[in-house]
Amino acid sequence: MGNSKSGALSKEILEELQLNTKFTEEELSAWYQSFLKECPSGRITRQEFESIYSKFFPDSDPKAYAQHVFRSFDANSDGTLDFKEYVIALHMTTAGKPTQKLEWAFSLYDVDGNGTISKNEVLEIVMAIFKMIKPEDVKNLPDDENTPEKRAEKIWAFFGKKDDDKLTEEEFIEGTLANKEILRLIQFEPQKVKERIKEKKQ
Ligand SMILES: [Ca+2]
Ligand SMILES: [Ca+2]
C-alpha cells in the first residue's frame, strides 16, 4: 500500500476506511480533497449539518431529526463529524448491508446511548420524523399511525413489548428483519438529502 499521493489523509485512517467500507483508496483520497474544499476545517459542525437538512425540508422542521442523525454519526461524541465519521456514516446508511443499516438505526433510536431502546425513545424519534412529514401527507396516513403516539404504539406492539420493557440491539435487528411493517414504520428515508449531501461533497 504505501502512498505517495494520500495528501492530508493519514495512512491509518485510509486503511481503516478501506477495511470498513468498500471504497477504494483512489475514491477515498479524491473524496477527501473535495471534503476539504467544502469544509476547510476538516469537520462538519452540528449547525452545518442541520442547515443542510433545512435546505431540503423548507416546509417542515427537520432540526430534531437532523440532531439525532448527527448524534448517531458522531462516533466519538465530540460535537463534530470528521471525514472518517462522515464516510462511515454514509457507507452505513447508503451502501451498507441491511444489518449494518439496522445497527445504525438502533443507534439512532437509542437516544441516551445506554445499549437498549425504551418506548419513550421510540416516541422521541418518531416525533422528530413527524416534524419532517408535510401536513398534507400526514392526512394520508392510516388511522393507527397518523400521530407520533399511535405510530410509536404500533411499533412497540409489533415488537411484542410491554410499556416498561426495553429492546436490545439483537431484538431490534431481528424483529425488523422479520417484519417489513416495522421497517417501514421506523424509518424516514431522506434519500434525497443523502444523495445531495454526497453529491455536494464529491
Ligand atoms: Ca466526532
Ligand atoms: Ca436507550
From TrEMBL:
Q: Which SMART domains match?
A: EFh (SM00054)
- InterPro entries hit by this protein: EF-hand-dom_pair, EF_Hand_1_Ca_BS, EF_hand_dom, Recoverin
Name the Pfam families for this protein.
Answer: EF-hand_5 (PF13202), EF-hand_7 (PF13499)
Listed GO MF terms: calcium ion binding
Q: What keywords were assigned to this record? A: Calcium, Lipoprotein, Metal-binding, Myristate, Repeat, Sensory transduction, Vision
Question: Which GO cellular component term is one of those annotated?
Answer: dendrite
Biological processes, Gene Ontology terms: phototransduction; regulation of calcium ion transport; regulation of signal transduction; visual perception
Concerning Gene3D superfamilies, the annotation shows: EF-hand
Domain of life where this protein originates:
Eukaryota
Which CDD domains does the record cross-reference, listed alphabetically?
Answer: EFh
Q: Which family does it belong to?
A: Belongs to the recoverin family.
Official protein name in the record: Recoverin
> What is the species of this protein?
Rattus norvegicus (Rat)
